[in-house]
Amino acid sequence: MTAPVGPLASQLTDHGLAIARTADIDLGLGYPQVAQPPWLGELLAAGVDPDLAYSVPSKLSATAQAALDGELLEATCRCLGIDEGHAVNGFVTFSGSVALDRVLVSQLGDGGSVVTTTPSVDMVSAMISEHAGVEAIYVAASGPGFDLDVEALSASLRPDTRCIVVSSPDNPSGNVVTAVQMSALVALALEHDVTLVLDQCFALVNPQGNDIPVLADFAAPGLKWILLWDTGKTFGLNHEKLGLVFCSPNVRESVRERLNVLQFDVSRRQKLLFLAILNAAHSNRWFDHLSALVATNLELVRQACLDLPLVASCPDAGSLLLLDVTPAGLTASVFADILLAEKGVGVISAGDFFHPLAPSGALPPGHDHFVRIALAREPDVVGTAMDKVAELCHELGRRPVVPALG
Fold first, then answer.
1. Residue 209: its pLDDT value, please?
2. Whether the predicted model's global pTM rises above the 0.85 cut
3. What are the structural domains, with CATH classification, of the chain?
C-alpha cells in the first residue's frame, strides 16, 4: 500500500478506503457493517424530508435551534449514561473528526504541545500537522497489552503542553481507561493546568460487559475537560453521522469559538434524524445487540486462532481486535498485503497506529507485529474471513520461501 502524502495524510484512512474498494471481505474499516434493524431502516426512510435539509433562520428561530440541540445532546447523555445536565455544555458537529480537530485547535491557541499515546489513531498528528509550532508528544503504552501508562504521560508533560488526549475504549487495542486511571488523569490535568481530552467513540460497544468509565462522571471543580463521542462507530451509516462534544464550563467558550470558525450549521434534518435514532436505539437495546454481535465474533476469532500460528488479543471493549501474526514468521504489513491480494480479506496493519517516540524519533518495538480486525460484522462474514486466514497460514507453511520477520 502506498503511503499517503500531504498535511492531513492519514495512512489509516487511506488503507481503510483501499480495502473498502478492493476487498471481498472488509475487516478493515472500524465502522459497523451489519444488517440494519427494521426500526433503523424505517427511521432512515422517513428522515429524508427536503424541507429539513437546511436550518433556514426564517423557518427555525435560534431559540428553537438551541432547543433541538439540547434535546439531541440530552439523548446522547442518556445513551452514554451521564448526567443530562452536561448537555448545556455540549455541541453538535458534522463528525467526530471535525469535533476532534476543533477541540485541539481550541486548546492549542498559537502553539504548544499535545501529549497522547502510541499506538493510537493517527488523526491527532494529521490534524496538528496543519498548525505551525504545535507538536504531538507520543507516550508508549505499557507492556504487550498496550496498557495506559499514566506515570509516563506525566513525565512527558512540558511547560508548553496544552492538553492530554486519550481514547477509551482505545483504538486499536480496545483497552479501557479504568476508574483508577481516570482519577489519576484528572489529578494530573489539575496539577499541570492542562485540558484532559477523552475520545470515547466506542464507549457504547461493550462485548464483555466491562465497566467503561466516562470522563464526564469524573468532572472535578477547576478541571478543564472535553469528551468526544460520534455516531459512526455505533451505527456505521455511510452518509449519516454526527460528532458530539461535551466539555467543562471553563473551556466551553473556546470550543464554541473554534467550531464557529470552521463549521456551518449542521442540518436540522440530520439533528432530528439522530434524535430519533438515539432514542429508538436506547429503547430497542441496539447497543446491547451490537455488543453481543461483537462478542460472538470475538470468540469466533479466538477459537480459529487456537489452531493457527496467530495470537488474538483480549480487548476490554470496543469492536476491534489485534492479531499478532509474528508466530507465522511475517511482519504485519506483509501479512495484510498477502491476505488482501491472495484471499481478498482486508485487515489493517497496526503499524498505522504507531508513532515515533521523542527524542529518538524511532518507532516503538512491536510496531509491525499486529493486524487490526474489525468485529462489527455479521458472524458468517467473520467466519468466512477466518477460514481464508487459515487457508493462507497453511499455504504459507508449505512455501519454500516466506517473507521473513524483519
1. 95
2. yes
3. 11-36+285-397 (3.90.1150.10), 50-283 (3.40.640.10)
